């Protein structure tokens, strides 16, 4: 395709939602440093980047800065902070590169592979950290003496059942069983329903293969003003209003 | 008002290109400056996407970790650091959203480092409240459906087919809304596509 034919697709490409063949064609033009498409997509990306900056600024917690700075502090010398295994891999590859000069390219590839593996491990570690943080939030709610507890689905063998805990300062914890995973392309969405008000989205979650689920909504909640906590099945990205009847609801 | 410290940091601080070079030298203070300059924007963007403060914190950390790990491949003379950082942040957040929803990961195609020249050096524009305000006004001028498709694409990473499914509209209609909305924004902001 020519640059003229691609011109109207620059912004859609910059948003990441271009269809084929336009997407591949633009990428091919960019790969060969096309003098028309590179500045064109750059302008489009400028526009889409500004869209991301229109949300009212939120204030991150102070602890987040420390967490981010720990990345650099912990990797002041990246080699020495790798786990011993990876440090050994890297050192081995380095020695190979020096001793076998003709194999330098291969050693470099091994280093890149080790680096990619390290990144995968770091990513898994971040996921574990996230899960741990979620469990900590759950325990924090459970430990609150003022947390209100509501049982739902009791007495019925098959429907989802479980408990909802609401703490005015910590948030809402949902623990459920008999809740089969939502179908492909769907997800469970929790709603906090105020007395006399419309349901408020309270986060998305998926249940495990064994039908258990744990979901936490962190932050203050008006327990006295809450009529119920409910869960619906929604499209994968979630919804701002419930589109289907609740799978279950816990009335306070 | 919230932008004032950011603007001061930009006006009186070093350029993004200098900051990139210090990051590439593994200077921990450069990471602090990077966070102070863009951390709030990154957190805001990710929070807007995932709508959960705890998850947003984790993803902000992942974003900066990714940038720290990949900054060696970033050509500061060819691309802007802020837009790249926001692109990485948006990728992380949408990837999480898709993963949490059981959707295909990496369905949104956002090159992060392969074409640094695509990330215009726009640090002042990015943190310029007047420029951001113009975008906000331009978005408000769009029809409800046009604004919805832009937000679904940008903040939720939905493809045009997924948007059609979500909005119960024909795919062709959604595509028309997307194109019309983007053209309107481009015209309002005077973002010229080179002839």
List its salient traits.
heterodimer; A: 252 residues; alpha+beta; Immunoglobulin-like; four-stranded antiparallel sheet; 21% strand; extended; B: 195 residues; mainly alpha; Rna Polymerase Sigma Factor, Chain: A; Arc Repressor Mutant, subunit A; 2 domains; 10 helices; 70% helix; 0% strand; globular; disordered N terminus
Could you describe the 3D structure shown?
- The complex is a heterodimer of chains A (252) and B (195).
- Chain A folds into 3 domains: 50 residues, no CATH class; 74 residues; 104 residues, Immunoglobulin-like (Sandwich), CATH 2.60.40.
- Helices cover 42% and strands 21% of the residues of chain A.
- Chain A is built from 8 helices and 8 strands.
- Chain A has a 4-stranded antiparallel beta sheet with strand order 1-2-3-6, with helices on one face. In chain A, strands 5-4-7-8 form a 4-stranded antiparallel beta sheet, with no helix packed on it.
- In chain A, a hairpin with a 5-residue loop joins strand 4 and strand 5.
- The longest helix of chain A has 39 residues.
- By secondary structure, chain B is an all-alpha fold.
- Chain B folds into 2 domains: 123 residues, Rna Polymerase Sigma Factor, Chain: A; 60 residues, Orthogonal Bundle (Arc Repressor Mutant, subunit A).
- Chain B has 10 helices and no strands.
- In chain B, helix 2 packs across helix 3, helix 4 packs across helix 5 and helix 8 crosses helix 10.
- Chain B is globular and about 50 Å long.
- At the A-B interface, helix 2, helix 3, helix 4, helix 5 and helix 8 of A face helix 3, helix 4, helix 5, helix 7 and helix 8 of B.
CA-based shape of chain A: extended
Helix content of chain B: 55-70%
CATH architecture of the largest domain in chain B: Orthogonal Bundle
How many E strands of chain A? 8
Number of domains of chain B: 2
Mean pLDDT of chain A, nearest integer? 79
Q: Can you tell me the CATH architecture of the largest domain in chain A?
A: Sandwich
Largest sheet of chain B: none
CATH level 3 topology of the largest domain in chain B:
Rna Polymerase Sigma Factor, Chain: A
SS strand fraction of chain B: under 5%
- Helix share bin of chain A: 40-55%
User: Strand-and-helix sequence of chain B, N→C?
Assistant: HHHHHHHHHH
Subunit organisation of the chains: heterodimer
CATH fold label of the largest domain in chain A: Immunoglobulin-like
CATH class of the largest domain in chain A: Mainly Beta
């Amino acid at each position: 395709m020519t640059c003229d034919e691609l011109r109207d697709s620059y912004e859609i490409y910059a948003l990441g939602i271009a269809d084929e063949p336009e997407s591949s064609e633009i990428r091919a033009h960019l790969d060969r440093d096309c003098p028309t498409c590179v500045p064109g997509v750059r302008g489009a990306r400028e526009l889409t980047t500004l869209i991301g900056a229109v949300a009212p600024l939120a204030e991150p917690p102070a602890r987040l800065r420390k967490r981010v700075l720990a990345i650099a502090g912990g990797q002041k010398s990246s080699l020495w902070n790798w786990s011993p295994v990876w440090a050994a891999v890297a050192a081995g590859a380095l020695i190979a590169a020096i001793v076998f000069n003709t194999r330098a390219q291969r050693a470099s590839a091994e280093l890149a592979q080790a680096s990619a593996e390290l990144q995968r491990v770091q990513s898994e570690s971040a996921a574990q950290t996230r899960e741990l943080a979620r469990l900590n939030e759950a325990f924090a709610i459970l430990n609150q003496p003022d947390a209100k507890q509501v049982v739902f689905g009791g007495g019925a063998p098959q429907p989802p059942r479980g408990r909802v805990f609401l703490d005015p300062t910590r948030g809402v914890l949902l623990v459920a069983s008999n809740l089969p995973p939502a179908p492909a392309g769907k997800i469970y969405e929790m709603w906090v329903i105020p007395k006399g008000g419309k349901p408020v989205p309270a986060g998305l979650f998926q249940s495990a293969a064994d039908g258990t689920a744990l979901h936490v909504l962190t932050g203050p909640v008006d327990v006295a003003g809450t009529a119920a906590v409910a869960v619906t099945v929604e499209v994968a990205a979630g919804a701002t209003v419930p589109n289907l009847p609740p799978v279950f609801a816990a009335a306070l | 008002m919230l932008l004032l410290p950011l603007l001061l940091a930009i006006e009186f601080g070093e350029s993004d290109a200098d900051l990139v070079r210090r990051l590439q030298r593994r200077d921990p203070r450069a990471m602090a400056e990077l966070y102070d300059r863009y951390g709030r924007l990154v957190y805001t963007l990710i929070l807007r996407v995932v709508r959960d403060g705890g998850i947003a914190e984790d993803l902000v950390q992942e974003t900066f970790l990714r940038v720290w790990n990949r900054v060696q491949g970033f050509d500061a003379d060819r691309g802007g650091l802020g837009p790249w950082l926001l692109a990485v942040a948006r990728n992380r957040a949408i990837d999480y959203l898709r993963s949490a929803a059981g959707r295909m990961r990496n369905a949104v195609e956002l090159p992060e480092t392969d074409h640094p020249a695509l990330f215009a050096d726009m640090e002042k524009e990015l943190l310029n409240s007047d420029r951001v305000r113009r975008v906000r006004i331009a978005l408000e001028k769009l029809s409800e459906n046009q604004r919805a498709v832009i937000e679904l694409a940008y903040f939720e990473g939905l493809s045009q087919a997924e948007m059609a499914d979500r909005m119960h509209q024909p795919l062709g209609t959604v595509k028309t809304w997307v194109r019309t909305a983007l053209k309107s924004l481009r015209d309002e902001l005077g973002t010229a596509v080179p002839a």
